[in-house]
Amino acid sequence: MCDQTFMAITFGPCDNCSTTSPLMNIYIKNEPTNYCSFCVEMMACQGLLKGETLASLKNESESLKKKLEEERAKLHDVELHQVAEKIEVVSALSIKTRRVLKGHGNKVLCMDWCKDKRRLVSSSQDGKVIVWDGFTLNKEHAVPMPCTWVMACAYAPSGCAIACGGLDNKCSVYPLSLDKNENLAAKKKSVAMHTNYLSGCTFTNSDMQILTSSGDGTCALWDVESGQLLQSFHGHTADVLSLDLAPSETGNTFVSGGCDKKANVWDMRSGQNVQSFETHESDINCVKYYPSGDAFASASDDATCRLYDLRADREVAVYQKDSIIFGVSSLDFSLSGRLLFGGYNDYTINIWDVLKGNRVSMLFGHENRVSTVKVSPDGTSVCSASWDNTLRIWA
Amino acid sequence: MTINTLAKGVWHREQMSCFRKMEKVIVAMQDPDMGMKMRNQRLLITVIPHAMTGRDIIEWLIQKYIMSEEEAVHLGGLLVRYGYIYPLKEPRSLLLRLDESAYRFQTPYFWISTRWPASELDYAIYLAKKNIRKQGELMEYEKVSDESYELCSSDSAEIFRASKQRRKSDRIVLECQEQAYWLINRPPVGSLYSLYTLLCRLLYHLIFKRALGRNRVKSSICLESFVKHSEQYQNHDPIMQGCLPSNPWISDDTSHWTMNTDKVATPTRLRVERWSFSFMELLKDSMGKKEFMTYLEKEFSAENLCFWQACEDLRHGESSRIIEKVEEVYKQFLAPGAARWVNIDSKTMDKTLEGIRHPHRFVMDDAQMHIYFLMKKDSYPRYLKSDLYKNMLAKAIVPQETKKSVFPFMRRQRHSSPSPAQAVTQATEEDGQAKKAEQAGTNSAATS
What we know:
The complex is a heterodimer. By secondary structure, chain A is mainly beta. Chain A contains three helices and 31 strands. A four-stranded antiparallel β-sheet of chain A has the order 4-31-30-29, with no helix packed on it. Helix content of chain A is about 10%, strand content about 45%. In chain A, a hairpin with a 4-residue loop joins strand 18 (about 255-260) and strand 19 (about 265). In chain B, a hairpin with a 2-residue loop joins strand 1 and strand 2 (about 45-55). Chain B is mainly alpha-helical. Chain B is built from 22 helices and four strands. Chain B starts with 15 loop residues before the first helix and ends with a helix.
C-alpha cells in the first residue's frame, strides 16, 4: 500500500475530539469529515467489533461490484461498431515522418505541444528538458534538471513557461526567457511536492494552476504562484500514471489512470471521485478525453486501448488485435475524434478507426519503445517521443 | 510499467516477469551438470544436505554470467531478498553473507510467484505452530489479529502433530523454509491493516452507491453522438481530409497558420463555420468571442459576456488575488446600481451574495453557470441567425489548394516565428518599440 503520509492532507481541529492535529479526510455515512488519526483508529476498532471480518468486507465489495455491472448492462442496447456501420470507411492515410528531432542524449520520456501549434517541449532520461520549434528544428531552450528520468513535462497555455518533474518528486515551473545568456535553471519555481515520483502534469486553463499525478497514488491541484496545494485526489490504490483535463464547458473534471487498472473521473472542485472504470487487465499507462468530452480512451500494458462513455457509464469499445502483443504506452485522438493514435512498446504507432473499431494504419520508424504520442493543437500533425532518443513529427 | 520502490514489509503488486526471470537463474543453479556444487552442511549436530555457502553462489554467478564480483554480490543478494535462497543459520536476516554460512534453495512451493498473495490466516497458522514449538517465543514483528489466531489454533495443533513424524533434518529444513517465506510475505500488522480496509470500504461503498444511483443514458443515444461529432468535424480534421492551402508540415509552407492567426483581417470559411458547432467553440476562438461581443453590444447585453470572462479569470487566476477579484466582480456586476449589472435570478443572487462574505475561488460558480446557459440558449442561437454572422461567413475566404510542386525534392525555406514568450515581453514595451522588434524578427528569419 502507498505511504501512510498520503492519508493526512489537512491540519486542524478534529471533528470528533477537537484536538488540533493532522486530519484524515474520510466519509462517514456519505458525509465528509475530518478526523485525527486516533479517532479514526477508534472508529475502525468499533467497526470490526460489530462482527465484521476481513472476509465479510471483501464479500460485500464483490457483491456491490456485481450489482453495478448489472445496472450498467441494462441500458446497453447497441454496440459502437453497429452504429458505425452506416458511415464511410476511412480512406487510406499516407502519413509519413516529416521531421526527426535529434538532440536528446537518452530516452525521451514525455512531450507536449505549445498552443502556437509548432513549438513543443520534451523531457528525457538524461535530465534535460528541451523546447523546440518543431517546424524549423531549432532548439530554443534547454533546461538541465537536477534529476534524471524527467517523466512529465507540459507547456503553459500562454507559451511563456514550462513545467516538468520526475524522480525528484516535484513539479517545477520554468518561465521561458528570451535572453540567451540567462540561466533558465536559476529561475525555477518548485510548485508540487509529492511523496513519490511525478508521472504526469498539465496546466489547467491558465498559467496559474497545475494538475499533477504521482507514483504515490494521488493527484493534486496546485497554485503556481504560491506553491499551495489547492485540492488533492485520493482513491487510486497504486501509482497514478496519467491524467487528462476534460474539454467541457464547465471545465471542472479530469480523468486519471493508474497501476490499479482503474480509470477514475474526478471533480476538481470537491476532490471527489465521480466515476470509476475497471475493465483493463493491466496497468493503465495513458488516458485521453474524446474531443467532445463525453468519453475518454485509455491505453494499457494489456495491449488494448479502450473507449469509455461517461454518460452511458461503461466501456463501449476495445481496440485490440491478436498480432499486437506489446503494451500501449500512450494515445491521442485526431481533431475530429475519428482516429486514435496509439504508441506501442513494439516501436510502432497503430492508428485505429474509433467508430468502426478496426486498425487503419501502422507507422514505422522508431527504433525503440514509443513513450508519448500527441496530436498538435490544430490537428495538422502527430508528434511521437521514443526511447531511441528522438522525436518524430508525422503528417 | 512503473518504477516504484517497495515499502518495507508490504507488497504493492505482482511483478511476475521479474520473478520468472529470477526463477530461470535458480533453475540453472540447480542444474545437475552445469549447476552449483552442493555439499552437506553441519548445523550444530544435524547434517543438512544440499546446501551451499555464500561464496559458492557468488563464484557460480561470476562464472556463468561472466560478471564482476560486485554484480554477482548484488544479484545473489536479490535472490536471497526475494526468498529463492534462504540462509540456514540466521533465518531472520535476508542477506547474502560471503563467509562460510550456509544457504539452501527455497522449495518451489514457497516461491513468491506460486504463493501470492499470502493471507493473514495462513500466517496465523504458521505462528501458532511456531508458538507450540518454541513455547511462546514469538518475535516482536510476528503479530496477527486475535480472531485469526483463534481460528487457526486447532489447525496448527494438527499440523504440529503431523510434523513430529518427520526426520529431524527434514523438519529443520521445513522450518527454515517457512520462516524465510513469512519473513518476506507477512501481511501488514494488525490494527493498521483493519484501519486501512475500513477506510477503503467506506470509500468503495460510497463510490458504488453513488454509481448505482447514477442516471445513465442509453447506449444507442450516446454512441450516435460520437458518429455525429465525427461527421461534423471530418472536414476540419487535417490528418483525414488535408487542410487548405496545404499542411505546413508536408509542404513547408506556413500559410495555413498565418491565415488562421488571432488577429487576421479575414478569417477562413472553416473557422467561421466551426463557431456554429457549439457555444464552446465560439468562445474558444478569440476572434469568435470578439465577434460575439460586438453582437451583444448591439443587443445591450454585453455585460453577460464580460461577467462570464471575469468569473473565468477568478476561477483560474492566482490564489493571492482571489479576494481582490471577487470585490471587483461584485462592484462591477452584482452590486445594486452597478455599472454593468447582470440579471440573475434572486435565488442564485442571494446565494452568491452570501458566499461573497467569505470569498473563495468558486464563489461565483452558480452565477457564472446561470449567465453561461442564458447566453447559450438565447443570445448564441440569435447570433448565428444574425446578419453579423452571415456576413462574416460570406466574406470568409476559402484558400486555394496549393498544387504539389513539379520538383518535390526542392525544399522550401522554413521560416521561424516569434516565440510566444517574446510576445509577452513586447506587450509591456511601448507600441513603437514593439513594432520595430517584430520587423527585426521577420528580417532575421528571412536570412536564416
